[in-house]
Specification:
The chain is built from 13 helices and twelve strands. The strands form three sheets. A seven-stranded mixed beta sheet has the order 2-8-7-6-5-3-4, with helices on both faces. A three-stranded antiparallel beta sheet has the order 9-10-12. With 395 residues, the chain is an alpha/beta fold. Bound molecules: pyridoxal-5'-phosphate. Pyridoxal-5'-phosphate (PLP) binds next to helix 3.
Length: 395
């Protein structure tokens, strides 16, 4: 099997698995218990919190453990909205190509009377700081813009956007789920007030994540109960997962430079190989993208058919977003960067990591080329294009 769907989830690293098992076996006490076995669990919890804080240049006090990226996004946005509402500020700025964990939370707020302004993304999949600057109003209470897009991998000018928000004293949240462990994050230098992280996107376990909230940004609870996480997120801590997440993040950050160089070289090979297929185009900026992200549109193809045939060849890839599979709508991200419906349907996301080999990249290119050719030859629409009865959309 060739796994090329790391943006959907990653394989847990051996180190993360080992630390998780060790915790399950030996340190299964409740961090809230007063006897020393519980206190030992509490110390392990603090140490994991400290390690994670260091990876993003935050204070351990500013790290809240959640069940993952979706929960962190929900809590961050709803908290900022509540702070805003108290001051009668109900204008929120975001973008059209956020993850659904952000977009659906914003839709909920819209029904509660908030005004949601979604900035258009440029064709290259990037929003400009000026767009944010020009949209800020007296009653803006939150700017939430993702660090890197999960479908097309484009990296946003987070530091500049953060600077603008800081100057205007507006809360800035970023969904950094695709960035954490893959791109340098420094919440101080990048002027970030709130940030979401999910462990399973950097070789940690599923169902665990982090919400970073700067001191002074008051969180409101999604879950009421005990006093865990300074009373902001109740429930006995998932210590084995937290420990494994800390192991995975630390390792990802320590090896970031080496991995990123290796993975982006493979990515560029993959892009160069796929570009040779006629009538296709890379989605998202070529330079400003995650080291492991490749996303193409192939004209005259259904993404789903492409995926299934690649699966037959043992290749795991993605088309659009896994969350929307089952619906017939094309990816909202590809529509956001201006791809017409017809072309957006023929998309393929390959997200690779440091364990992929040059041989695998070669095999992916060859397989995609074969499958695209096969599918096009079956399509009456494609035949019309080839004999000039219809226009090609992509060169
Ligand atoms: C995966 C992902 C999420 C959701 O994270 P979960 O931990 O699966 O809830 C949110 N945002 C982005 C950008 C993602 O890639």
């Amino acid at each position: 099997m060739i796994y090329a769907d790391n943006a959907a989830t990653t394989k847990m690293s051996s180190a993360a698995i080992n630390s998780m098992i060790d915790c399950i076996k030996n340190d299964w006490g409740n961090p809230s218990s007063l006897y020393s076995f519980g206190q030992r669990a509490k110390e392990i919890l603090s140490s994991a919190r400290k390690n994670i804080a260091e990876c993003i240049n935050a204070d351990p006090d500013e790290i809240y453990f959640t069940s993952g990226g979706s929960e962190s996004d929900n809590q961050a946005i709803l908290s900022a909205a509540k702070i805003g509402a108290k001051k009668n500020k109900r204008h929120i700025i975001s973008t059209t190509f956020e993850h659904h964990a952000v977009l659906h939370t914003l839709e909920k707020l819209k029904k509660e009377g908030f005004e949601i302004e979604l900035l258009e993304v440029h064709e290259n999949g990037i929003v400009l700081p000026e767009q944010v600057k020009n949209s800020i109003r007296e009653d803006t209470c939150l700017v939430t813009i993702m660090f890197a897009n999960n479908e097309i991998g484009t990296i946003q000018p987070i530091e500049e956007i953060g600077k603008i928000c800081r100057e205007k004293k507006i809360i800035f949240h970023t969904d950094a789920v695709q960035a954490a462990g893959h791109l340098p994050i420094d919440i101080k230098a990048q002027n970030i007030d709130m940030l979401s992280i999910s462990a399973h996107k950097f070789h940690g376990p599923k169902g665990i994540g982090v919400l970073y909230a700067r001191k002074g940004v008051a969180l409101s609870n999604l879950i009421e109960g005990g006093a865990q996480e300074k009373g902001k997120r109740a429930g006995t801590e998932n210590l084995p997962a937290i420990v494994a997440m800390a192991t995975a993040l630390k390792s990802a950050c320590e090896n970031m430079k080496v991995n990123s160089e290796k993975v982006s070289a493979l990515r560029d090979k993959l892009i160069e190989g796929l570009e040779k297929i006629p009538h296709c185009e890379l989605n998202g900026d070529r330079e400003n993208r995650l080291p492991g992200n490749v996303n193409f549109c192939f004209e005259g193809i259904e993404g789903e058919s492409l995926l299934l045939l690649l699966d037959d060849k043992g290749i795991c890839a993605s088309s659009g977003s896994a969350c929307t599979s089952g619906s017939l709508d094309p990816s909202h991200v590809l529509l956001a960067i201006g791809r017409p419906h017809e072309v957006a349907h023929g998309s393929l996301r390959l997200s690779i990591d440091e364990t992929n080999t040059p041989e695998e990249i070669f095999c992916i290119v060859k397989s995609v080329a074969e499958v695209v050719d096969y599918l096009r030859n079956m399509s009456p629409l494609w035949k019309d294009k080839v004999c000039g009865k219809r226009e090609f959309v992509l060169r």
